[in-house]
Amino acid sequence: MQKIALIVTVIFLMISCKVKQSPIVFTKYDETFEIAEQQNHEIKRMQLKLIQSKYLDMNEVFKPFEKELSYFSEADYQQLKPLIVEQDIPSIQQSVKNGILTYEKITLFYLYRIRKFESDNQLALHTIIALNPNIIKEAREKDRNRPKNTIYTLYGLPILLKDNINTKGLPTTAGAFALIDNKNTDDAFIVKRIKENGALILGKVNLSEWAYYFCSGCPVGYSAVGGQTLNPYGRKIFETGGSSAGSGVAVAANFAIAAVGTETSGSILSPASKNSVVGFKPTVGLLSRSGIVPISSTLDTPGPMTKNVIDNAILLASMNGEDVEDVVTKNVIRNTDYLQELTSSTLKGKRLGVFKQLLNDSIYAKTIRKIKEAGAEIIEFDPPKVTLNNFSTLLNIDMKNDLPHYLQNFADKNMKLKSVQEVVNFNQLDSINRAPYQQQLLVGIVKDTTSTASFNQIKQNLKTAGLTYFNTPMDEYKLDAILSINNNHAGFAAVAQYPCLTVPMGFTKNGEPTSLTFIAKPYQEKQLLQMAYAFEQLTKIRKLPENYR
After folding, report:
1. Is 119 a catalytic residue?
2. Class in CATH terms, 23-548
3. Tens of pLDDT along 208-259?
4. CB of 516 within 8 A of CB of 353?
5. pTM value?
6. 243 annotated active-site
7. Does the annotation mark 267 as catalytic?
8. How far is it, in rounded angstroms, from Cα 112 to Cα 409?
9. Catalytic residue among 267, 270, 288, 484
């Protein structure tokens, strides 16, 4: 009788798993009242003009998954949630190895979770621009061919990419309607590397349009294609940070294992900090920029954005490699074994520089005391008084040259727009929809006539200023790293081409996340990860956004 009862139970479970679910529909709504309310926001950039995208239809984005998701229930989702949400890569991979999870289940879980929240107009974060229509098929292939040793790898795991990173089979828009037909490209070099390491590309996420070098004083996280990305810790209350807003928000809300962002100056550090995730802006030259819509070939770099440090190390290693098409990656000091000694790392004996003026921040001051109690040597200092004169000129001239290079060599061959001037002209044909916050920075690029000689001098002056700013205290006090807040010193680190790693540090009284940022000399990525891991284990401060648990 027990055997019969067991068989009946198994059959019942099999049948119940196949009950078809009612389809979920994404619906547009009248946001007039919402927008009117935002005009009272104390932060001018949060006085939004729109929230929903005028171009994106999420029903079309999810259409390829209708069949599979119709047999994936809320009960399935709830059963898998503790195995996936907030879990690190080794834990998830261990569950796969133990037969508890499959890559197909993980993929379906994330698709369901994204749809669950993004289809709810009271909770939607507007993170997703595109999804890989073949990802379920690809996940099944990964399940069939899973190698033995996957615990510390990306194999079979869904990753999201900022939508300025070329991805075969998906459009790459940089959030701009001007690039909405940029559909047929090869993978960017870093995407090839991620795939070579076994990861699945889940899709593309929203960003501040043109990586926030588009409009002046406009909302961060806004793009014409994706609409307005919102912060899960304070939806329409806190800024998302920019420009890798979608990457930071998606990781914070557990919409994927991890995401890739890009930074010119603060574009990983800012959204990582604002969304309580770990964000790494590596040394310029460590990671390739080929196939990424540029601002500045001098300063640009991609970087990993993750829920924790160990995942960050795994994703960073997977993107690493010399690219013959990006000369800055040649002859670079590479140490990709970032996991070696990571979990045994300590802050004891580390010499860490602290900005005296930042100690007025109570969370920072409390954090520094905790680090000191853990055995680190804390050296307070005042930085040298240097300025970043002509920073915008560097960005202007680089983008004036680098964008045409991308459009000529890496964009869809049918793309008609070939220069910044042509993009400006295109947007002016329908500025209400294509540039509702205007396009002052693109216009500024067109107008900038700085000569080559002056431009080269500006670049050199800026790099000297950045190096002076950090090297003076680092060399004088023999520091292992300097500790900052969020993206406060991103500009200096950008021109010095120094790596920065930001880790959740706490929350303000009103619940807004804030982070501690470790800054070191070039190619000290392994050391930064070790210090950040030790700090993370000391504090364990990150928590899921309340409404996205």
Report:
1. no
2. alpha beta
3. 999 999 999 999 999 999 999 999 999 999 999 999 999 999 999 999 999 9
4. no
5. 0.96
6. yes
7. yes
8. 36
9. 267
